[in-house]
Amino acid sequence: MGGGGGRGKRSVRGRATPSTAAEEEEEEEEGKREEGEGILATEEDLGEDEGEELQAAWVPRLRVRSRTRPRACQSRQPSMTPWRLLRCCQWTAAWVPVLFIAVVICWSYYTFVVELCLFTIAAQEEEGKAAIYLVIFHLSFVLFMWSYWKTIFTPPVCPSKEFFLSQSDEEHYEKEERPEVQQEILKRVAKELPVYTMTSTKLIRYCEKCQLIKPDRCHHCSVCNKCVLKMDHHCPWVNNCVGFSNYKYFLLFLFYSLVYCILVTTTVLEYFIKFWTTNLRNTRAQFHVLFLFFVATMFFISILSLFCYHLWLVGKNRTTIEAFRAPVFLNGPDKNGFSLGWSKNWRQVFGDEKKYWLFPIFTSLGDGVHFPTRLMMDKEHVTGTNHHEHIRSSGSTQNFPVGPLSESKNFLLATGSEQDVSSGMKNHVTVSIES
To answer: Using one digit for the tens of pLDDT, what is the confidence trace for 284-302?
Structure first.
């Protein structure tokens, strides 16, 4: 009997499922009872043989489940890997122009300092001349690299939380399929915001990707995938958006690039001419100096045109986007809508303190959201008080000073009926003008 029982146990252990119909029925009844009572059967509650039979019956099922979960995870990995690889390639490619400029700058520094000043000028017993060149060169080089660094690593400023729809408005907007009702939702929210420009079809400027109402002069950058205050353009040479937070740095970067190129070109020109004679033909710096002259001249010509164009934009108080697509007010598109005259336009970017104009330090006036408009340029004293004082009450985390321009929250370009203008002034701003 004992031997038979032992063989019976071995036979049960050797099979994956119960061998008899009675045992199968008993197993199903036990499973139903366990599910109904919410408890698990153990080998102590059952018999030794029955426990082994149930273990043999349930183990294959557990093994199947443990194998299916990793397969499900593995099936998701191929779909995620190409996306991550694509993002990594895009990130790497975006820094290629910056690395190229960095390599050119490092090579020009080596050529000017080592090959020209130390091995060429100093070798001709002109140490004083070489020292003067090195001092002037390093002053321009430091300012050039400082402004370039600030342009690259100053993050663009995005609209504050007050321009985002509330959760209830956002749900209502997404569920609503009628465009006119969606516009009514946006208009109701925009009444409490300092927004005075609109789309070409006289609709509220709303960003579907960021899900916010765009402030004046704010645009969505498809490269940075965010809305940027007073966006000018996305520059691949700095791998950053040029906007309210770093526009001054960008202009100084162009200016000091020109100074750097002019300095290199004028100092190298003398020795560039000598290298075409028999005087310095055999020196080791010949190739570097000749090539440096051509590179500096080429960059000077290309940067000069870009710098002059942006000086013109500053004088007109326009961004690159507004130069191609004029902002739309209630009276229609107007490229000069934000122009206050050359002097005020210049101070809006560089600030009121002239001692900081040539340094890459943030001195721009305003907060990137509120901008005075064209109607103010002939007025000497303008005071504007907003009913809600958005900046002070919104708890914005922007690290930029709110200058005098932020007080000019006006509704001045509305040329519709007097009733519309008065209602708009009542909802947004009270402006008093003294001659």
So the answer is: 778 888 899 999 999 999 9
| Type and span of the H or E element at 88 | helix 48-94
From the number of C-beta atoms within 10 Å of its C-beta (0-12, 13-18, 19+), residue 204 rates as buried
Structural contact between residues 394 and 159, judged by C-beta atoms closer than 8 angstroms = no
Q: Measured in whole angstroms, how far is the alpha carbon of residue 427 from the centre of its chain?
A: 33
- Other beta carbons within 10 Å of 391: 19
First to last CA, the chain: 120
How far apart, in whole angstroms, are the C-alpha atoms of residue 229 and residue 49? 76
Cβ 260 vs Cβ 144: under 8 Å:
yes
SS3 410: coil
Over residues 24-77, the pLDDT tens digits come to 556 666 655 555 444 334 444 434 444 444 344 444 443 333 333 333 333 344
Catalytic residue among 227, 235, 241, 261: 235
Nearest to 112 by CA among 80, 144, 88, 90: 144
The one-character DSSP state at 356 is: G
How far CA 252 is from CA of 41, 150, 194, 348, in Å, comes to 78, 10, 30, 15
Catalytic residue flag (residue 89): no
Using the structure block, give the residue that is written with the tokens 């001349």: 129
Specify the residue for token string 């003294």. Answer: 434
Angle between helices 96-110 and 286-316 (to 10 degrees): 130
Residue 305 bridge partners (DSSP): none
Four-residue CA torsion sign, 166, 168, 169, 172: positive
Q: Could you give the 3-state DSSP secondary structure of residue 287?
A: helix
